Amino acid sequence: MQDLKHLITFENLLDDAANEMVKEAQSQGEYAIGYTCYHMPEVLLNVDNCFSVRMRAPRTGSIDISTYYMSNYTCEFARSLLERGIEGGYGFLDGIAGVDACSAMNRCYEHLEILDCNKKPHFFVTHTDVPYKVESYNVDQVATQMRLRLLDVMHEKLGTDVSDSAIRKAVEEHNRLCRVITEIGNLRKLDNPPVTGYEFHVICLVSYCCPTKKILPLLEETLEEIKARKTDPKPFYRARVVVVGSEVDDLDFTRLLEESGAMVVADRYCYGSFPGREEIVLNDDEDILKQIARHYMKTSECPRYMAEEKITQRRETADRLAKEFKADGIIYEQMKYCDFWAFERPLASHILTEEYGWPTLSIDRSYNVHNSGQLRTRFQAFVEALEIKRIRNSARKEAVL
Fold this sequence. Notes:
By secondary structure, this protein is α/β, with parallel strands linked by helices. It has 14 helices and eight strands. The strands form two sheets. Strands 2-1-3-4 form a four-stranded parallel beta sheet, with helices on both faces. Strands 6-5-7-8 form a four-stranded parallel beta sheet, with helices on both faces. The longest helix has 28 residues, at 373-400. The protein starts with 6 loop residues before the first helix and ends with a helix.
């Protein structure tokens, strides 16, 4: 297939947290709010004169300094962010909106603040709590915290308009972005998709890392380009897989997987399109913050929610996406030393195989996989197993006919 017009631009924007679009927006008087977790409603960070920046640490090498502060048995994502912060990589941010979801990330936020990694006089780090299950009183709790610990802070520090009308405007823009990403993602349901899993990963990730109003026109243009794109006569993949699990912002992970013969047809991981790119439906009767809090809590697939119905939801979501996107198998991944996914992954991957009937590859990985030979070998073996299974199933059907 012909290369996408803006793909290199998108890849370049992902090379640095303080990318050109971020700098341009700040030069126009807007403020960048960093965040790391789906529990922090992205849409609330895009109100009025603020825009959200998904915190990443691309091209991470040594994390020795952050390991000194946080120990080598904590999440590599949190350590990589702290390492980049100590190097000055987040000095451009005007605030960080954190949540008390995991202890490793809490320590990262704490050290970014204590070590004075940002010199801006109005810079702030704020935290909100995350409940363990979704109940009406929990929705009230989260909505109240978003008002007191986030919006009020943004208003005080940055002069942000946090009125209901400003929030509704941010939701409208967010939904427009979601419709574009969803329409591109749904093209992966086709037998011969006009977009690869790697390209979609780039497109989806850049939507988290750039100001929405600046990246949206390029994404809309890319959607039209993909819809009109001429595909090769033969599909480029040997097997279709759904990737499920913890945070994946490393493009090399998807590149390595697709070089091994797979295609990522659905991405149910932190900062993929499931969840994260679903439209937020609002009514005119209920408090707007309660509605937004409920949306994020209900759509969240994070193992931080330990209620039985949430555990079941995560398994059923993986099963539903695999069926809907016609996957051959599921890759269940977690980042090394991630406490919540370390509990979730072993049992969930077993159940998806034994009870739901999906071939499942269960892996733990580094934050940046680079060009891992071990991971490549496992991907290649899994693709071959899926390919053999599909061939045998086809042979059985022909024999019956």
